[in-house]
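It is worth pausing here to work through a concrete case rather than discussing structure prediction in the abstract. The textbook approach is simple: state the sequence, then state the predicted structure, then interpret. We follow exactly that order.
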Amino acid sequence: MYVVEDKGGAIALMLAALLFLGTWPAVLTLLERRGRLPQHTYLDYSITNLLAAVLIALTFGQIGRSKHDMPNFITQLSQDNWPSILFAMGGGIVLSLGNLSTQYAWAYVGLSVTEVITSSITVVIGTTMNYFLDGRINKAEILFPGVGCFLIAVCLGSAVHSSNAADNKAKLSVSSSKYDGKTWTVENLGTNKDLQDKDVTKDMEEGSTGLTTKTRKAEAGTADFLIELENTRSIKVLGSSTVLGLVITFFAGVCFSLFSPAFNLATNDQWHTLKKGVPHLVVYTAFFYFSISCFVVAIILNIYFLYRPVLGLPRSSFTSYLKDWNGRQWALLAGFLCGFGNGFQFMGGQAAGYAAADAVQALPLVSTFWGIFLFGEYRKSSRRTYVLLVSMLAMFIVAVGVLMASSGHRKT
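Step two, the predicted structure:
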């Protein structure tokens, strides 16, 4: 079994996890904006997310000879360690619920703000729990100021969303658009029939999935751009209450805050639930069971949502999902990115402390980059929105540096 033992290696894994975990939400957001049903996307994502955990377990978890106190992955599958397995599977369940919630929150609140709020809640609650579970191996005088920075970022993220929502409302109020209860029509861009006339392009933002319009593309940040987006995306959000998006986002954040402490308990057995002589779950075995429960919950809920959709989405079926190949390769890629990102986070956390590993929750730095440059978020917004956005990102940069500086070393 491959074991990360030095702080430098742990930090390198955290940085890789930060990149992967900040990129996969942008991929799923791209598909939703192109009109692909989130149930179809999440089913594809779940398959490769589980496959990533299996690949990590069969490679890193099988390197070298098995030892009694640190058995290899396959050796440990037959051991009596069900209490730890249940903790790992519990972590997978709450992570799956959180991920499922965010795929709807992205549409309502935006990629950047969703990631900021959920990540900050995760750090404020989860990092505090991990600090005490890890026997305080992280430097408290450095760790908790970092947690405070994330708490400030939650407030700034909410303010950014409120300010941006007000900006969009002002843009739409002076637009020449009309809403008939189902679709928007932009008079200076063409009729609603024109907006629904599909074409295939190769542009990354416009998509290559047959879900774009033949009318000219509106400039990002304008009211016409918002309306074009509304007519092509799968989740209709214009005119909806902003409170709904924030409620979904805060629920996801609470779910995310619990999965890392549960995984910590699974691998280190701080509550002494294992029988005497039974070795702790190694990180790869715990991640395997963690991913299985995550997969099962995702499959059950998304198949249910195919037939009983929420938030005004159209009804689908499992047969329709199997036939929907538009953008499937992107959804599968997102699953791999998330799977390897989570795996690297746990590998780094086992070496340097799970509290310090929560620095990967600064993934909004990556997600915001994609949100601004790929999706045109915050284009033509007010000065107040820009000031809040820059302040939020600056607070995250400080927070991730402080959390990584608090890294300790777990005695094996």
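Step three, interpretation. The chain has 15 helices and four strands. Confidence is low (pLDDT under 50) at residues 186-216.
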